[in-house]
Amino acid sequence: MVYFENVEKRYPDGTLAVDGLNLEVESGEFVVLIGPSGCGKTTSLKMINRLEECTGGKIYVNGKDIMTLNPVKLRRQIGYVIQERGLMPHHTVAENIATVPLLLGWPKKKIDARVDELLDMAGLPKEKYKYRLPAQMSGGQQQRIGVLRALASDPEVVLMDEPFGALDPISRDNLQNELLTIHKKLKKTIIFVTHDISEALKLADRIVLMRRGKIEQIGTPDELINNPATKFVEEFIGSDQLSQISGDASVTALLEDVIMEVNLNAAIEDVLEDMQDRDVKSAQVTDAKRRWHGSIYLSTLKKAKREGKQLVKETLSVNRKLYVEDGNLKDAAEMLVDMEAPIPIINSANELQGIVTEKGMAKYTINKLIK
Ligand SMILES: Nc1ncnc2c1ncn2[C@@H]1O[C@H](COP(=O)(O)OP(=O)(O)OP(=O)(O)O)[C@@H](O)[C@H]1O
Ligand SMILES: [Mg+2]
Hints:
Number of domains: 2
Bound molecules: adenosine-5'-triphosphate, magnesium ion
Structural class: alpha/beta
CATH superfamily of the largest domain: P-loop containing nucleotide triphosphate hydrolases
Strand content: 15-25%
CATH architecture of the largest domain: 3-Layer(aba) Sandwich
């Protein structure tokens, strides 16, 4: 879909920004360009839609040498999200999104419907946002509008230059997820620039790691992590170990043996004594087949005893649990923030698989940090 053949860019002052770039981006692929500041990412992106002209080699878009195309027409075929949103401040959200369709001469009705459809897709209610000015929206919302504007005319190729750079981590995470959903649904070819390695690992089908205008390595996130081609790649990827603790990782990464397991028919009195002896504050309640029935806590057991209850099965907490099949570390972290007791991990047959603890999560983080 986008093909770089020995592409070179030397700026008039002599700076060699891109030095012999060879890259083939396939249709529907999500490629992330990453590398240190000044390595030529933005320049590479801008050459695709001829905001900068290459000084050597050739670039093909959809099989056509871009030098044979009219640059204005070329740009209208390619979505482009620049850093810092770049919305027109005196135009409404609707007008901003409609920029390229207007230039392409779409009928008004079609444009209007397209704007509504896009706002809907980004979870921005049109009644509320359509006629706002950019300044009346939050940074994250403006960033969304920037992305929608690039998608408006339904281009096959979308270029994005650090589109989420200026956002707080939560908005960033949300927008990344939205972008992944959009990419899955619309199958656009996306070339995305970032210098955030965790963002690259999360989003990319393939990562292109650049250094001083050249490609250091091209590969899937797994290939770059597991088979770094050079010391530079290893250090670049490794520079961000912490962020590899992805919230999307399965809870199985942190699964530990159950500290205390109690039979469903045990007496509250006995269990209380046992817990106090062993100095534990919670336990998992199972039956003879090791099916999980709930958790018990020291505090609730004491209360149940005062209320005259006899058996642990009369005081079970059943809502706080995660499934081994789909529980992820983010879910676990959120639960641990609410309450530090171990989280029972069960499978879809309700069998107890283990627990995830606050201590286990801390250990994991620490190990990643000192690696
Ligand atoms: N118009 C220009 N004239 C001269 N040199 C330029 C020009 N634009 C960029 N450069 C130089 O080209 C090199 C590559 O710049 P580019 O903007 O592509 O880097 P980048 O990888 O996008 O960096 P960053 O991560 O900081 O955005 C840098 O050395 C930069 O100083
Ligand atoms: Mg740049």
